[in-house]
Design brief:
With 242 residues, the chain is α+β, with helices and mostly antiparallel strands. The protein has six helices and ten strands; from the N terminus they run H-E-E-E-E-E-H-E-H-E-E-E-H-H-E-H. The chain has a domain of 165 residues: Roll (ph1033 like fold). The strands form three sheets. It has a six-stranded mixed sheet. The radius of gyration is 18 Å and the shape is globular. It is found in: Nucleus. InterPro entries: 5hmC_binding, EVE_domain, PUA-like_sf, THYN1-like_EVE.
Length: 242
């Protein structure tokens, strides 16, 4: 039996706690062909280590020079509060995941090319933050891991599913999904507002969250994280909430 969809790409809105989010272009404003061409590869950029307040500093192999970003962790957005899409409730909270057999589910319903490509880039065993989105208090609640790499998303062929895609063909499927398994709850809820405060400070001081995609591509439901970003956010669970 198909699981409730985790889709939050096409037509998505910024998190309710982010009314000041500035989004230049939504997915709908970019044609499928444009979006697919632009998102053919995960974004690359530069990253500086050794931020003055970051405990886990790393020495650059290039003697302190900037190096290309490598993504090895992920952030997966899911909606914990009920919302109907074409008559189907797309709610799926961390409790819903924990209630699944073997605490495992397929991550279906993604209908954005860049997010799909991120799904296809996921490797077995990689960890991701489970992020409650589009709710009263968005933020990170748990850690999950990839237990099955990308394969065709069955919902694209199901006419009764809200994410049915009549243009996708079984011999050449457009959309993919992965299987994820619950690992553990974070030691405390890490709210978006707290992560945003660090992001803003890091933009000024060159910290690990300065380019975090949670703030540069807010609408994407699948987002990559560097090792530095993942480690820093994970370290927040040890701190008392501000």
């Amino acid at each position: 039996m198909p699981w409730p969809s985790r889709k939050r790409d096409k037509g998505a809105v910024a998190d309710k706690k982010e009314p000041d989010a500035k989004i230049a272009k939504t997915e709908e404003e970019t044609s499928d062909k444009e979006e697919e061409e632009k998102s053919a590869k995960p974004p690359a950029g530069s990253s500086k280590s050794g931020w003055k307040n970051w405990k886990k500093t790393k020495e650059s192999e290039a003697g302190g020079e900037e190096s290309k970003i490598t993504y090895c962790h992920w952030l997966l957005k899911s909606e914990p509060e009920s919302r109907l899409e074409k008559g189907v409730d797309v709610k799926f909270s961390i409790d819903d995941l924990k209630a699944q057999p073997n605490q495992t589910t397929c991550w279906d319903g993604v209908r954005n090319y860049q997010a799909r490509n991120f799904l296809r880039a996921m490797k077995l065993g990689q960890q991701a933050f489970f992020y409650h989105s589009n709710c009263k208090e968005p933020g990170i609640v748990a850690i999950v891991k990839i237990v099955k790499e990308a394969y065709p998303d069955h919902t694209q062929f199901d006419q009764k599913d809200p994410h049915y895609d009549s243009t996708s063909r079984k011999e050449n499927p457009k959309w993919s999904m992965v299987d994820v398994q619950f690992v553990r709850m974070t030691k405390r809820f890490i709210p978006l507002s707290e992560i945003k405060a660090h992001h803003q400070a890091h933009k000024a001081d060159g910290g690990p969250l300065k380019n975090m995609m949670l703030f540069t591509r807010q609408r994407l439901s699948i987002q990559p994280l560097t090792q530095e970003e993942f480690d820093f956010v994970l370290s927040l669970e040890e701190e008392k909430p501000h």
